[in-house]
């Protein structure tokens, strides 16, 4: 049986809670997005593309997703008229995702529902604790994105 330090146990607890939270957020996102004909995945892609035309690879990197799954989602969004593919001025072989009027309208409707939902939740959470949690999650992201050598050896406490 593996031996765990208190830090290792705490980090494992963090991982498990993030997995649970992710599932709950995806389900809630699907409910928020459904009236606009979207899913959480489609909402995420539209949200990234809202800042200007982007490649599938850029969306995947931004959201921490696999390029292939983003491509499938973008293709479905295009079929349903929420996005179009436009030429990429930086790469003649690539295409970028751009929102259509219908895509922008759907995104704004989801954002409005999201604002009401999130404000209701946020009112029930201590701001300082929330900010500390965000900082801890960002630290975890940074650790996981670091090259293995940069991670160093575990601290002994």
TrEMBL record:
It holds the Pfam family MarR_2. It comes from the Bacteria. InterPro entries: HTH_MarR-typ, MarR/SlyA-like, WH-like_DNA-bd_sf, WH_DNA-bd_sf. Gene3D superfamilies: Winged helix-like DNA-binding domain superfamily/Winged helix DNA-binding domain (1.10.10.10). Residues 11-139 form the HTH marR-type domain. PROSITE patterns: HTH_MARR_2. This is MarR family transcriptional regulator.
């Amino acid at each position: 049986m593996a031996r765990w330090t208190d830090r290792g146990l705490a980090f494992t607890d963090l991982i498990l809670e993030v997995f649970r939270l992710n599932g709950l957020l995806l389900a809630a996102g699907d409910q928020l997005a459904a009236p606009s004909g979207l899913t959480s995945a489609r909402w995420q892609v539209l949200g990234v593309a809202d800042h200007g035309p982007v490649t599938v690879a850029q969306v995947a990197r931004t959201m921490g997703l696999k390029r292939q799954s983003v491509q499938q989602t973008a293709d479905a969004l295009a079929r349903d008229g929420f996005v179009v593919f436009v030429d990429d001025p930086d790469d003649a072989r690539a295409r970028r995702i751009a929102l259509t009027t219908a895509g922008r309208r759907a995104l704004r409707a989801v954002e409005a529902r999201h604002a009401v939902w999130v404000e209701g939740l946020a009112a029930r959470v201590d701001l300082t604790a929330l900010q500390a949690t965000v900082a801890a999650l960002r630290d975890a992201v940074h650790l996981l994105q670091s090259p293995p050598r940069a991670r160093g050896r575990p601290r002994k406490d």
